[in-house]
Amino acid sequence: MNILDGKDCYKTEQPRRGLIIDSLLLKSRWSFYLLCYLSIARSGFWGLWGKLTVKKQVQCSSRNLDLIEQLGGKWNISGLKNLDKADGAVMLIGNHMSMLETAAMPAIIAPHLKFTFVIKKTLMLVPFMSSTMRAMQAIPITRTNPREDFKTVLKEGKKLLNEGVSIAIFPQGTRTVDFNPDTFSTIGVKLAKAANAQVIPFALKTDFAAIKGLGKIKRNNTVCFAFGEPINVTGNGKEAHMKIIQFIENNLNQWKEEQKVIDEAAAKK
């Protein structure tokens, strides 16, 4: 069961029962990474055999939604109904913070939109992740050759959008907690314009997991996702690009203040 079924917004209200394996692993970070990768492996197995349906994508990814709560974390998700307002396939454009995005987003987005990712090419070398991404028709890019990456995204992306597959892209290029509008590429907006598709902005805060590698997890950090109203791309796309940036900044600022209150309360205990 997906905890998001039938909901526009979801906030964790009650603590979930903990996991025995988490206690056995002394409540270390490995509880998260081991169980998260098992979900990825399950998805990859289905992908390897050509049987990764949308339903199976959601089932595998939903395990990671449950996992966060079972490890003591919380979710704050809003704007899911905006995903149903799209006029056909869309570009989903947002910031990038940790590995948790690709693990959780199928459970969040796939019940509303058939979608895939623009991903870093090196992910295609990760066991099981690679077969999942192939099954989802993900678009791999190098992030070392911007000109070739743009051609790839434009060619493959336009084809997928025309076939009814929405595309999630992280135009800032690298995972980071601090959002910098100056390094936030317009590639997603340009693709949307070329394919005559709408844009749905999203903002996320996934610093529950390590930003790079398999570092410590922060169980006190709330995992947040927000999705905005569909945006039509007009003119040179600058207005749409600025609306996306504003949406991300507004949500990140709000979540930062909320997390500050949580951290202060935890420090007093």
Short description:
This protein has 8 helices and 8 strands.
Strand tally, please? 8
Number of helices: 8
Helical fraction equals 40-55%
Low-confidence stretches: none
* Beta-strand residue percentage: 5-15%
Question: Which radius of gyration do the C-alpha atoms yield?
Answer: 18 Å
The largest sheet, given as strand count, sense and whether it forms a barrel, is:
8 strands, mixed
Instruction: Give the count of structural domains.
Output: 1
Strand order of the largest sheet: 1-2-8-7-3-6-4-5
Through-space gap between termini: 34 Å
Specify the structural class.
alpha/beta
Order of helices and strands: EHHHEEHEHEHEHEEH
From the spread of the alpha carbons, the general shape counts as globular
> Averaging pLDDT over every residue, what do you get?
94
Describe this structure in words.
By secondary structure, the chain is of the alpha/beta class. The protein has one domain. Helix content is 42%, strand content 14%. The chain has 8 helices and 8 strands. The protein has helices at 20-24, 30-48, 54-70, 100-109, 129-135, 146-162, 187-194, 238-268; strands spanning 10-11, 74-78, 90-94, 115-120, 139-141, 166-169, 198-205, 222-227. Strands 1-2-8-7-3-6-4-5 form an 8-stranded mixed sheet, with helices on both faces. Helix 5 links the parallel strand 4 and strand 5.
